[in-house]
């Protein structure tokens, strides 16, 4: 399998953890470990690192024992700091902007934040896992909407046309130009023109590769 990835799952709900494991393994991915709390996640990844067998991506719940507040996202932030080569995809019951911002702080390569409802869309979830494992970005549309809506750069964002804001939102979700074109039912050329205009208006230089362009946008929104 060309896009086969190695995954560690951190989820305190046994039912959901086993469901995610089945979902991933049925599609040919390797779930190398499944744990129920943040401490076990940190320990497991450390053990895998010692064996030179780090996973490609960690899928973790934001809230885990013992307090069910922010243990999961804090573990994710720590893993990104200690093992920058690992992708981290965080699942949350609802949008928690503070956690999303903290997760995106620093390097934004290999990072994702999805609502748990999104897992019901199997194809979208699996695509997000692979994309994050490969160093890309996968942000839930609702997260993107909040980041765009509450940006301190509203004066500059106001200079974008409604269509450019729509394209920007889809880019921030991690979609390729072709995927954006398909979603908006327009040509690839039209999307490329919108992307060029967006970067010009935001004062950003488009880089080679879709993920780098997405990261530049997210970095701007966080500034």
TrEMBL record:
In-chain residues carrying the UniProt-annotated modification 4-aspartylphosphate: 61
Keyword DNA-binding included in the entry's annotation: yes
Recorded GO MF terms: DNA binding
GO terms for biological process, alphabetical: phosphorelay signal transduction system; regulation of DNA-templated transcription
Pfam entry (one): GerE
Transcription regulation among keywords: yes
Limits of the HTH luxR-type domain: 153-223
Domain Response regulatory: from-to ranges: 6-131
Gene3D superfamilies per the UniProt record, alphabetical: 3.40.50.2300
Name used for this protein in its record: DNA-binding response regulator
Organism: Streptomyces vinaceus
Lineage of the species this protein comes from: Bacteria, Bacillati, Actinomycetota, Actinomycetes, Kitasatosporales
